Amino acid sequence: MKKQVFYFYEALGFDGAEQLKVFNLYFPSGYDFFEMDEETKEDFISENPAVNRALLHALFAGEKMRQYKRPILLSAKHSESFGRFAQEEMGQLRQEELRVALLNTQLEIIGFETIFVGTLTEVSCSPREIFQRAFLANAYAIIIAHNHPSGTVYPSEQDAFFTKKLLKVGQDLNLPLLDSFIVTKDNYWSMAEEDKEL
């Protein structure tokens, strides 16, 4: 972290080494922002008011960001639990919608996001938006789900073609598609449960 402090001062046109010496006087062996007393903070700020105040705000924000974790929606280790979850979320929708579940390395769902909304009978989309969203979320793997307002739970030829395309792109990008779901208000279909790649 002291390297970042050095570069902070350098970026503002100060002598990073000199400013780091001052920083080390106040914080010789690290510190916890939530335990820093007001007197130490004010003394440090008084050395270079605007800049040191900005530094403390930046370090505090960085610490908060480091502690932030995405909430876990559910475990996707069992297709049935995800199928029922997707069915509850999407089964009653009147238009077709495609959503992507973003998974961490423990196969926990850290996001379930709508990628496309279509018509009553179809949704058209490209793999680019799906994988772009997965990379932005630093996902380990994905699951896709879309609904069939018609009530038919089985995949169409278009569904099969699109899923095969996603499987291939996922393999190439080392970001695998683990399953593909179709949901209706009464049921769900899972590629993994059917034990085939469509």
UniProtKB/TrEMBL annotation:
It comes from the Bacteria. Residues 72-197 form the MPN domain. Gene3D superfamilies: Cytidine Deaminase, domain 2 (3.40.140.10). Keywords: Hydrolase, Metal-binding, Metalloprotease, Protease, Zinc. It holds the Pfam family RadC. Belongs to the UPF0758 family. PANTHER family: DNA REPAIR PROTEIN RADC, UPF0758 PROTEIN YEES-RELATED. This is JAB domain-containing protein. The lineage of its organism: Bacteria, Bacillati, Bacillota, Bacilli, Lactobacillales.
